[in-house]
Structures are given as structure tokens and as C-alpha cells.
Amino acid sequence: MKPVLMCREVSVDFDGFHALQGVNLEVYPHEVRFLIGPNGAGKTTLLDVICGKTRACRGKVLFYSHDITKMPEHKIVRLGVARKFQSPSIFHQLTVWENMELALKQDRGLFAVLRAKLSREDRDTIIAVLQRIQLFDYAEQKAGSLSHGQKQWLEIGMQLIQFPQLLLLDEPIAGMSEAERERTGELIHEIARNCAVVIVEHDMDFVRRFSKQVTVMHEGKVLCEGTMEDIQKNEKVVEVYLGREEKAC
Amino acid sequence: MTKKGWLYWLFFLALFAAPFYLTEFRLSLLGKFLCFAMIAIGISLIWGYTGILSLGHGVYFGLGAYCMAMYLKLESSHGRLPDFMEWSGVHQLPWFWKPFEHPLVAISSAIIIPVLLAAFLSYFTFKNRIKGVYFSLLSQAVVVVFVTLFIGKQEWTGGTNGLTNFSTVFGFPLSSPFTQIILYWITVCLLLLIFLFSRWLTVSRFGRVLVAIRDGENRVRFLGFNPTTYKVFVYSLSAAFAALAGIMFVLQVGLISPAMMGIIPSIEMVLWVAVGGRSSLIGAVIGAIVTNSAKSFFSENYPDIWLLFLGGLFIGVVMFLPNGLAGVYQSFKQRKGQREGKTHEAGSHVSRSVGGF
User: Fold this and answer.
1) Which residues pair with A224 in a beta bridge?
2) pLDDT digit string, tens, across residues A151-195
3) pTM attached to this predicted model
4) Which of A70, A178, B10, B56 is 20 to 30 A away from residue B357, measured at CA?
5) Residue A6 burial by CB count (10 A; 0-12/13-18/19+): exposed, middle or buried?
6) Residue-level pLDDT at B337
7) Which domains does chain A carry?
8) Once rounded to an integer, what is the mean pLDDT over residues A70-80?
């Protein structure tokens, strides 16, 4: 099977600080890949490089056969890569419905948007996604008035409605209640039926519960890959990350 | 039609009928204010909706006005050299003045030149992601450049005095009340067209992209839109409105000088919109009319201290009405809605979201 995403020897420097040092990562269709690692390991930076927010100084990022290493952000999105940021970044002044309308998969050129009308199909899609993220009853409310968890969901919904082939999530469950976490975890696995998902997450319980493949990063490098069980046995990992957490507990 | 829609039409109807109930002097003032209202709509689009504060719209207004004035000057010189050129020792009409003998060339370049300048400037600044205060300062710098240029090149532009002493437009005497009333009506029509067009833009999906750019430009990028395209378009559009206002201004006022396109007028333009409410198109129109009416009222009645009143008005609005006059209307409506019962409203939300779009 061809990988959806392939990062080859990706390196990033921030004024001499080596945020990423030759990272290799392959993600296959329908995979849910968790990225874990201590603070400063470069997880978010890696997502930034994939979606074009940060530029790699060496190495290559391939999305299927497209080289997206130097592509502008909006073009990467149009290819089918969606990104959810750590803090919910939705449009507070627009209603939930309007937020979804902007996120729709559509021709995003200026003149196409000027002429754009909401088709019956689009409306049905929005309603379906809103029901799935349980925000249908809030459709006409300003997005700024939602609770933190709902904002996170709205943002996930805005990624879903783009029907991406690769979804990048940065700490999607931060600030959520126990029940909301559970539902988010299930939602992520539902999403993975149609696309590959890469998730950065700190919450170890959540990772244990919902992960199959986990990649551990440390100081800008990939330390190891495998299932959560493999990783817990790996001595290096225990040393840099899990051990520290367990001690803290 | 909604109640709001009726109010809009009533407002424009009242403007149309103004020649029947205003004196000649008041009408000429109102005509001038309506030109300012056109600029205000453009600034509301770029600042209120898209979140880009331009302190340099005087340049686009000025360029539009100068292009039109060049035609008027040549027409009133009857084939001779314009008076100010003779005084400056110029013996031949400069080559770039020649095309302005034709009214169509003059009017179309009055729009095209400012729009091209706006598109050029905004493309390179927005593409390089220059935003916020840096953009505002840059737009001020452009004003300084143009004002200095126009004052310095006296033999071509009339220097500090600007261009004035026009007699006719397309053969009609500018001083006759009949011509002035026709020009006034054209101004009202143009304002109405600009208003309707802008309104169509802002209620469509395009308008929501603009608000989204204002609230989170990066997020918009990660939804697959290219904000640069949108920002350049809206900025150039607002320049076109300002240029159109410049054309109508010079026809009705009969004068354009560098002082009218300088830094202070450019900042004043933003103030009109702030007074009216920056994210409301009708607010911007009313803001331009109210502020300028207040300005002429105070200056007529209190010639010594009128500037203090105007300053007080601005401070008052900024401190107590952060969303301008339009904000007062909205919060009044909201309070009324709350009194009439919240449950009713909550019910209508969902039904509208499904059926109303």
C-alpha cells in the first residue's frame, strides 16, 4: 500500500535551535497515528512542516506523489490535508453554521466564492456533520459563545467537512471533560475509516485507550515506533518519557 | 421586505428628494458629504469587515479627483495652456496631460489609476504578510509621498493651490443650479449603487470570508483560501469607491488641492466610519454625513472653538460608543428583543438555520 504521507529526513532550524533533526515518518491510509514525546520534542513543529506553516530547511514531505515541502498553505489544504490547531481557532464572530459553510470543500477562488450559493447537497452535508459533532442545535449561535469542548468539536467538524485524506490534530482533547474525551476518541476512529489521522497528544490514558501505532519523538528525532505495549517496554522511551511521567504520578 | 429594508429605501428617497427641500448652499454641502459617504463605505469594507486599517485613502480620493480636474481644467482653458502652467513658465502642455482632453479617458483613468496603485501596493504588502500597524504606517507613507510630489511639481499639478477655476463640464456651466442638481442626483445614484453592491458582497459567503480573515487570517489559510487575493480585491475596491468619490467631489466643489488628500483628511475618513460604526455599511454612510454636518454646524456657529467640539465628539464616540452609531441601534434592538422573550428567539434560530439558508 502507498503511504498517504511520507516525511524524509525533515530538519528544521529556528535560529540555530534544531527543532527537527532528520525526521522520517510514513502514514498509511486509514491509520490513526499518535505522536507523543516530552515538551520540545518537535511534535507540533512536525505538524507545522506538514501543513506548510513552518518550512523545512532540509528533507522532503510527500503527500501521495505530491511534493508539498515548499507549497503554500492554502494549496496543501486544497490537496486534502486538514489541520486542527492546539487552541481552538474558529471564527468567533460568525455563527456555527457560517463557520461550517466556510469550511466546506469548495472552489475557494475569489470569483467562485462571489457566486457561491449553498446547494441542497451542501446543506445536507453541513447538517449531517453538525449532528455528528452534536452542534446542530447551536447552528445559529455565534461560535464565540460555545463552551471550550464544543469549540474543539466545531473545529474538528470544520476539518471533517473538507473530507480530507490526511487530518492533523494537535491535542484535540485539551480542556475536555471525561465524557467529551470519550466521544472525541470514538469520533477519531470513525474519521479514520475515510482518512489517515496524525494526532499529537499528551494525555497518556487517551493514547493507551485509542492508539494502535505510536511514534515517540525526543529532541527533534524519532525515538521509536510501535504499539503502546512495545513502546512501554522500550528502555530508551521509559528513560526519556514514560518513566518520568510514572515517577510524577 | 423587512423593516430594515424599508428604512434603507426611505433614507435614499429622502436623499433623492433633497433638492426640493434644501437651499442651494445646503444641497451643495450634502452633495459633498455624500461623496465622503462613498469613501466611508469602502473603508467600512476594508477596515470594519476585513480588519485592515488604511490611513491612506486620501491618495485614492485625490488621484480620482485630480484626473477629473485635469479634464475640467483643459475644457475651461479652451485649447490654451492652463493658467497655472503659464505662471510656472511652462510653454507646452506636458505629454501626460494631453489624453485628458477626452472626457472618457479622464473618467476611466480617474478610476483605473487609483485602483492599479492600490492593487500594486496591497499585493506586495499582503503577499509578504505585512499587517496591522505596519500596514497602517505604510499607507500613511504613501500619502506623504504623493502630497510632497503634488506640491513639488507645481508646473504640472498646480502645487499647493491645486486645480481650480473650472467653468464647464461637457459644455454645461458648472455654476448653474440645474447642473449642480443633476450632479447631486448622479452622486445619490452612485452612492446607492455602491451601497447595494457592498451589501450584496457582505451578506454573501464572500462577506463571511472577509470577517473570517479579520478574526483569524491563518485559520482562513488552513481552510484552503488564499487571504492575499481577497485582501487585494477589497482594498482595490475601496480605492475605486474613493476615486469615484473624488470625481464627484471635484465636479461639485470645483477644487482639488493636496491639502484635501493629505494625512489629516485620510485620518478623518477613518473617523467618519468609526463614528458611524465600522462594521455597518449604513453606519458608515450616516457617520460620514453626521460628522461632516456637525463639522459645518460647529464651524458656522462657533467659528473660534469649533474644533474643540469636533474633538469632543470623537472622544465621546470612541469612549462610549465603541461600535459607533450603528452599535447604539443594534444594542437598542437587542434589549428590545430580550424584553420580548428569549424563548421565542431560540426556537426561531434552528428553523432558520435549516430552512433559511
Assistant:
1) A216
2) 888 998 998 898 899 999 998 888 888 888 888 888 888 888 888
3) 0.89
4) B10
5) middle
6) 74
7) 1-80+164-249 (3.40.50.300), 88-163 (no CATH)
8) 92
CA distance B166 to B162: 12
User: Exposure pattern of B100-118 as b/e (b: 16+ CB <10 Å)?
Assistant: beeeebbbebbbebbbebb
Q: Where are the domains of chain B?
A: 3-355
So what's the ipTM on this one? 0.85
Q: Note whether A140 contacts B349, CB cutoff 8 Å.
A: yes
Please list the residues that pair with A196 across neighbouring strands.
A166
Q: Please state which CATH number belongs to domain B3-355.
A: 1.10.3470
- pLDDT for A202 equals 84
B331 min Cα distance to partner chain A (Å): 16
Chain segment A114-141, per-residue pLDDT in tens: 888 888 999 999 999 999 888 999 999 9
Beta strands A5-14; A17-27: pairing state: antiparallel
pLDDT at A247: 47
Say whether residue A79 is in contact with chain B using an 8 A CB cutoff: no
Nearest alpha-carbon partner for B42 in B191, B172, B180: B191
Measured CA to CA, the distance from residue A183 to residue A187 in angstroms comes to 6
- A91 shares contact with chain B (CB less than 8 Å): yes
Contact at 8 Å (CB) between B314 and B275? Answer: yes
Does A94 lie at the interface with B, CB-CB under 8 angstroms? Answer: yes
pLDDT, tens digit, 9 for 90 and up, residues B142-151: 999 999 999 9
